[in-house]
Amino acid sequence: MASRVVLLGVLFGVLIPVDMVPVKNSTGVHEGKLRLKRKYSDELMDRDEMTAMDQILEVNSRLRVPTGLPFREGDIAYSYVRSAINCPGNACLWPKSIDGFVYVPYILSPVYDDMDRITIETGMQEISSGTCIKFIPRTHEASFLDIQPRYGCWSFLGQTGGSQTLSLQTPGCMWSGIAAHEFMHALGFVHEQSRSDRDHYVTIVWKNILPEQIHNFRKQATNNLNSPYDYSSVMHYGRYAFSEEGGPTIIPKPDPYIPIGQRDGPSTLDLHKINLLYSCDANE
């Protein structure tokens, strides 16, 4: 009898903790696998830790891209007529006015509510406050940004001429840092890790990238403006961008723990590079 009591006690001690553990769905084992691969940061993806590009990719991954409007690097739109991802000879820059400012006319869709407009205009202000770029409501200008809440978060590269759509879907893209990111594309900037010299500063972990997304990690023939590589650029991919199974796809070097990317808005170096590209004299 005593032995039966001991046996029941052992079984009870084993079964009770198991029964108290919350039931997990079938992804639990997979999630555990992902955690083991996350060597260079804590849990991902806490919403508070997402970079602007993390959020952009999350929103855009749910898109059905319109026919004839493919994306490069996740959020740079191009038409088959104008497929270059860079602009040789600065041919895609917005023109500079005689007063030293670069005016970028825009119109905002009436679909946006007041909070959306504030978010988008904050993204503009974060660029304008430190550069000679001035976003102005369009009056009669032939070339302008047509900011619309369609198909996710994306922009064409630089000035394309005429009306050019810049998409900031609501609510998914309604972070001022995302707006600033897309405006920097419209000013002519690609992503930071696409720089021609990026291999000196980051390691691309090709084996961790979704096979169909490998093309998004190609280096570009960029004008680096003799400026330092910027791990904290709002234009930088997050550490796990396009990851196949949760492992890092980009590792900084020589220190793999350096944070990369953010969502707060243009970094000091981002603003500096805008000023260099557009030969701004003010606010440098």
TrEMBL record:
GO molecular function ontology, one term from the record: zinc ion binding
Keywords: Disulfide bond, Hydrolase, Metal-binding, Metalloprotease, Protease, Signal, Zinc
Binding site for Zn(2+): H181, H185, H191
Signal peptide: 1-20
Domain Peptidase M12A stretches: 83-281
Listed GO biological process terms: proteolysis
Cofactor remark from the record: Binds 1 zinc ion per subunit.
Active site: E182
Enzyme kind, highest EC tier: hydrolase
Cofactor: Zn(2+)
PROSITE patterns in UniProt: ASTACIN
Protein name: Metalloendopeptidase
Organism from which the protein derives: Xiphophorus maculatus
